[in-house]
């Protein structure tokens, strides 16, 4: 499974990129708002992310609501950098836009996906990526990972004719909150998990690793004569 980072924070993206584990970046309007960025700086900000993560897919979300508006905005966003992926929500308006954009070779990450039928329709229309939101199910007392399992199986059962040579459409496990989400996404066969930097850092740590480090340090102090 590949790791994307789910943030628009440039420092976090730089640091995660330095770990050598990043395969892409996802952003959304809320994540950009969190950086304090303004509309006038939005495109430069996305281009900067694309430079930091050269060659890796960087999702920038369209806020248009009509099919025509989504196509125009997607074409514009895609022209900003070769590695831009356009995020569109799953709606009746977006499906024709996704279909049109796929034929132009523009990659769409279909977002706000909460059912297998939505995922299947997006794949058929030509979405390059499909993003089920696991954590938001959990937020309402549902089991996000059960829904993810359905979507992974349903989507991976078929070939769609678009993005075959790139191994698409790929499932991006989104709305990830915990290392458990990450592990289960991998075990369920999701292609990608997009993880906020805080949750990614939690994935590095384990209490037994910390305990082991303390023990080694204490024993090494005996060797060096620094033990108290
Ligand atoms: C990423 O593509 C999604 O926009 C993001 O993971 C949503 O996460 P949230 O549910 O924590 O806002």
From TrEMBL:
It is found in: Cytoplasm. It holds the Pfam family TAL_FSA. This is Transaldolase. GO terms for molecular function: aldehyde-lyase activity. InterPro entries: Aldolase_TIM (IPR013785), TAL/FSA (IPR001585), TSA/FSA_arc/bac (IPR033919). One of its GO terms (biological process) is carbohydrate metabolic process. GO terms for cellular component: cytoplasm. Keywords: Cytoplasm, Schiff base. CDD domains: Transaldolase_FSA. The lineage of its organism: Bacteria, Bacillati, Actinomycetota, Coriobacteriia, Coriobacteriales.
């Amino acid at each position: 499974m590949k790791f994307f980072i789910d943030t628009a924070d440039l420092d976090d993206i730089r640091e995660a990129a330095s770990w050598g584990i990043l395969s892409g970046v996802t952003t959304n309007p809320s994540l950009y708002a969190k950086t304090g960025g303004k509309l006038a700086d939005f495109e430069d900000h996305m281009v900067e992310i694309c430079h930091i993560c050269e060659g890796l897919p960087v999702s920038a979300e369209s806020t248009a609501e009509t099919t025509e508006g989504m196509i125009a905005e997607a074409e514009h966003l895609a022209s900003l950098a070769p590695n831009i992926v356009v995020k569109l929500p799953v709606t009746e308006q977006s499906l024709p836009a996704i279909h049109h954009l796929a034929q132009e070779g523009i990659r769409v990450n279909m977002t706000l996906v909460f059912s297998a039928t939505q995922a299947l329709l997006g794949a058929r229309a030509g979405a390059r990526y499909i993003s089920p939101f696991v954590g938001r199910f959990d937020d309402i007392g549902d089991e996000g990972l059960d829904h993810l399992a359905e979507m992974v199986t349903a989507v991976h059962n078929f070939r769609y004719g678009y993005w075959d040579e790139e191994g698409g459409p790929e499932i991006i496990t989104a709305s990830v909150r915990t290392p458990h989400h990450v592990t289960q996404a991998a075990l369920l066969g999701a292609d990608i998990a997009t993880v906020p930097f805080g949750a990614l850092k939690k994935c590095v740590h384990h209490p037994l690793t910390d305990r082991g480090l303390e023990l080694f340090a204490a024993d090494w102090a005996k060797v060096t004569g620094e033990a108290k």
